[in-house]
Amino acid sequence: MNPVYHKELLLKDRTYVWHPFTQMKEYEDRHHLLIERAQGLYLYDADGRQYYDTVSSWWCNLHGHGHPRIKAAIARQLDAFDHIMFSGLTHAPGIELAERLVQITPTGLNKVFYSDNGSTAVEVALKMSFQYWQQLGKPQKTKFVYLEGSYHGDTLGAVSVGGVALYHELFKPLLFHAHCVPAPDLRQVDRTASRSAHEIAEIALAHLRELFAKESDTIAAIIVEPMLMGAGGMIMTPAAYMQGLRELCTAFNVHLIADEVATGFGRTGKMFACEHASVSPDLMCLSKGLTAGVMPLAATLSTDEIYAAFYDDYAAQKTFFHGHSFTGNPVACAVALESLRLFEEEHVLEQAQDTIAALAAALGDSGLAKLPHVADVRQLGLVAAFDLYEDAERRLPFRPEQRIGAAAYAAGFEEGLILRPLGDTLYFWLPLCTTADDVRDIVTRTIRVLRRVLRLSE
Ligand SMILES: *Cc1c(COP(=O)(O)O)cnc(C)c1O
Predict the structure, then answer these.
(1) Hey, which end of the chain has fewer CB within 10 Å, N or C?
(2) How far apart are CA 388 and CA 45, in angstroms?
(3) Pair 263, 393 in one domain
(4) Which atom of ligand 1 has the smallest separation from the CA of 58?
């Protein structure tokens, strides 16, 4: 890129742009990284430097950037028609994608309601559950349950069921009340060596059973991120918890909402995280990887039973009055369909198993887990995470002002990595097209970042 233009752009970035999740003052005397090109696993900055996209561009990208078949699908759909509304009109990409989603998601999810991002997919699920109970003659079932540390998006309904204090606490006065229950954090297996994953699941389920026993008459649904709670710090949870949750929801007549916005489409090694536990939820939220991470699109899937409670004469006033301007965008639907064809024709999920095994091996062999300050190295599929502590043994955190995670992000650039932290938790959230060689290279570079940031000798 022309250096003068490059500089001008970055000045305009500061003048005109307000970036998400960003304290803009941190950029008072430094620039954002300006990306000019992306191909496969790599992003390229305006100086031509190459970076591994180890976070899949905020957990979205699946098949790498600039995939020729994805680009062709966009061009084909644009040639036919661009955006049209999805209320009172319909189109082939929206119809065919709905059919495919019903086929590949857990059994029982038979209806697809589109929106355009993860938060709206969650809002739709919450409102559907609420309205279902209103129309079923149980108007007192209005409350929701969420897990401590959970994240379901940034719109106010989603924030009401959010359990991350840093993002959610401030907005409390604006939110509807929801019950918070403890999460079965698998890190407790390491910390309290005497407890198994199963016991950790049981302890969390006991809290929920107690809540349901007392309050289920007023509870519409519980929302969970199955197996992996992302934004709360890459908290991994046992399959037994999901199974117990399904049983309790059925027994107490409470909807189970699976928020697979982040975990869907192969990231955990299975197409959907619910499959690790062989569980079918009543409502499922999808976005991020739905379009291979290339276009904004979301879907909320529901059971026939929920759908049936809305199906009536217009005068019965059971219509679901919800929709967004870009609901079911045809270009996004066409991309999502092409991504699902890729899964099938190129055996994407089968191929990824080698990478997943290589990631496990690299985490073990590289010595990463044995570095001072590193604790709780964990992995599920193509996601791996670890936490940095002042004293890893005793889990004493660094002082917040040390900004260790942020320092790792900056040092990552020097090693050709986009290594976006969550506080002092570092993680990889790898595209499905990552190879075993890529994984080893990424882990090696990460260790160099850690040595630099933690000032460790070679
Ligand atoms: C990212 C995310 C959302 C919100 O999706 P947006 O598209 O950012 O609104 C919801 N749930 C989970 C689990 C997520 O990771």
Answers:
(1) C
(2) 28
(3) no
(4) 1
State whether 41 and 109 are in the same domain. Answer: no
- The lowest-confidence range among 39-48, 177-186, 346-355, 397-406 is 397-406
Q: Which helix (H) or strand (E) holds 228?
A: strand 228-229
CA of 137 to the centre of ligand 1 (A): 32
Residue span of the structural domain in which 251 resides: 69-345
- Ligand 1 lined by 225 (C-beta under 6 Å): yes
CATH number at residue 212: 3.40.640.10
Q: From atom 6 of ligand 1, which residue's Cα is the shortest distance away?
A: 118
The pLDDT > 70 percentage for the chain reads 99
Cα-Cα-Cα-Cα torsion 444, 448, 451, 454, nearest 10 degrees, comes to -100
Digit-coded pLDDT (tens) for 291-341: 999 999 999 999 999 999 999 999 999 999 999 999 999 999 999 999 999
The verdict on the CB of residue 118 being under 6 Å from ligand 1 is yes
| 289 Cα: distance to centroid of ligand 1 (angstroms) | 11
CA distance 175 to 169: 10
Beta carbon of 52 within 6 Å of any ligand 1 atom = no
Q: Is residue 10 part of a domain?
A: no
